[in-house]
């Protein structure tokens, strides 16, 4: 081996960016990807539109990071959202800002991001080996020697960057391989948990209404008062989903929900006060219409047919016969329907995997392992995760950027 070699294991956003940064010309850079294409998960991000990052400042990115935000401080210094956007703008990609600071390519097409990365990698002479799965990392005297492929072939390297992603959406190639590689080398792995995922709900009637959605709700986890998020709520065949649920899920994934269920409270009309609703009901109390048909002002018909029996209020009840207690139950449900969360969807169906390589054993300035010299980590394989909003891709790009620079010795040159 004449030139020194850097191997990057996994061609997702973290791996592609790491390989690109490492390709200074002084090293041979080899990117090993087990799929036949790069960035299979990146392709499906943001519903195929790629929410690349969030325009909010570094503080907000730290706040949105659920586990180990402090570890990311230096990585965000090295590559912040504006620098990431500029990187792609300089290569011809225009961006647009959407709600809550989210940033998408104007083309609404994640392929544009992947194509830019791929062209850059080839222009910088990065050797890409598709359909090559790394089985393990070879190490001697606590120093990286190279990688071993599934066919037992060993490829020597001076540095190896593990960017194999998490264990979510395994069909994209992220099957948790990096956790096993790191564990074999003595790294601690923080328990893998689903993050950004839907709630499984105990109440059966909810699950019969899959597909119904409600805009502008406020969802709150009871007894954890700060845990509340707003947005569209979606009923699914296992419970509830939608942006507020996905955000909240990342904060309750440490709880054994089967044994200790939590109660979620849904306010369907956060902008309306209880008094306002009471007045509305009183105004409509003289009519002979059924409660069920009057309530279509607030809820879809199918939902009303299920929720009224759940509340123990007959849907045929005439408005002029509605009892005070029944009115109270309906208003109570409009302002705070309580459901029991008995689980989260499994890791494989979650948008992001929480847990992973313990960041205490990784240098935040270089992403190098503190245990094995020449071994680096970047992206979701690390115990880092954030809520929805483009924050997770920023983590992948920023940590990949740092690892690639450090592995190539760039950071030593200042
Ligand atoms: C449906 C969905 C939508 C999302 N949308 C967004 C969004 O809009 N914005 C956002 O910020 N985040 C989003 N995310 C999260 C984001 O995609 C991930 O956090 C990010 O892709 C992690 O990047 P990574 O490079 O660490 O890992 P990955 O993207 O998972 O890439 C890992 C790569 O390593 C390869 N690999 C794995 N094991 C091996 C091995 N043994 N040998 C060789 N190669 C291997 C895999 O094939 C894969 O290509 C979304 C996730 C999903 C599932």
From TrEMBL:
Species in which this protein is naturally found: Isachenkonia alkalipeptolytica
Domain RsdA/BaiN/AoA(So)-like Rossmann fold-like residues, every copy: 5-405
Range of residues in the leader sequence: none
SUPFAM superfamilies reported in the protein's UniProt record: FAD/NAD(P)-binding domain (SSF51905), HI0933 insert domain-like (SSF160996)
Recorded superkingdom: Bacteria
Cofactor(s) the record lists: FAD
InterPro entries noted in UniProt: BaiN-like, BaiN-like_dom_sf, FAD/NAD-bd_sf, RsdA/BaiN/AoA(So)-like_dom, RsdA/BaiN/AoA(So)_Rossmann
Gene3D superfamilies: FAD/NAD(P)-binding domain (3.50.50.60), HI0933 insert domain-like (1.10.8.260), Translation factors (2.40.30.10)
Keyword entries, A-Z: FAD, Flavoprotein
Protein name as it appears in the record: NAD(P)/FAD-dependent oxidoreductase
């Amino acid at each position: 081996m004449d030139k020194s070699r850097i191997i990057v294991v996994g061609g997702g956003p973290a791996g592609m960016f790491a390989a690109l940064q490492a390709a200074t010309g002084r090293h041979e850079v080899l990117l090993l990807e087990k799929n036949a294409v790069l960035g299979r998960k990146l392709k499906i991000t943001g519903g195929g539109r790629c929410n690349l990052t969030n325009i909010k400042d570094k503080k907000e990115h730290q706040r949105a990071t659920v586990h180990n935000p402090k570890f990311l401080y230096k990585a965000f210094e090295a590559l912040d959202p504006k620098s990431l956007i500029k990187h792609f703008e300089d290569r011809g990609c225009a961006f647009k800002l959407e709600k809550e600071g989210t940033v998408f390519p104007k083309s609404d097409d994640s392929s544009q991001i992947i194509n830019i990365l791929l062209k850059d990698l080839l222009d910088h002479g990065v050797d890409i080996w598709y359909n090559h799965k790394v089985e393990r990392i070879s190490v001697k005297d606590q120093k990286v020697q190279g990688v071993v492929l599934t066919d037992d072939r060993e490829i020597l390297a001076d540095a190896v960057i593990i960017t194999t992603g998490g264990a979510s959406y395994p069909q994209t190639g992220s099957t948790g391989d990096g956790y096993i590689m790191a564990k074999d080398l003595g790294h601690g792995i923080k328990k893998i948990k689903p993050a950004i995922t839907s709630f499984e709900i105990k109440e059966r009637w909810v699950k019969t209404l899959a597909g119904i959605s409600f805009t502008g709700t406020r969802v709150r986890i009871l007894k954890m008062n700060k845990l509340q998020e707003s947005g569209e709520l979606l009923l699914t065949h296992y419970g509830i989903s939608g942006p507020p649920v996905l955000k909240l899920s990342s904060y309750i994934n440490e709880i054994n929900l089967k044994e200790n269920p939590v109660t979620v409270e849904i306010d369907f009309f956060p902008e309306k006060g209880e008094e306002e609703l009471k007045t509305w009901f009183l105004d409509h109390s003289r009519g002979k219409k059924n409660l069920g048909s009057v309530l279509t002002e607030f809820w879809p018909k199918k939902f009303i047919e299920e929720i009224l029996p759940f509340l123990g209020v007959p849907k045929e009840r005439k408005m002029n016969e509605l009892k005070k207690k029944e009115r109270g139950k309906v208003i109570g449900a409009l302002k705070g329907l309580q459901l029991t969360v008995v689980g989260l969807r499994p890791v494989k169906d979650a948008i992001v995997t929480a847990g992973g390589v313990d960041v205490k054993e990784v240098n935040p300035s270089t992403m190098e392992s503190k245990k094995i010299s020449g071994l680096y980590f970047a992206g979701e394989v690390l115990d880092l995760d954030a809520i929805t909003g483009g924050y997770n891709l920023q983590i992948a790009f920023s940590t990949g950027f740092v690892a690639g620079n450090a592995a190539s010795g760039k950071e030593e040159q200042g």
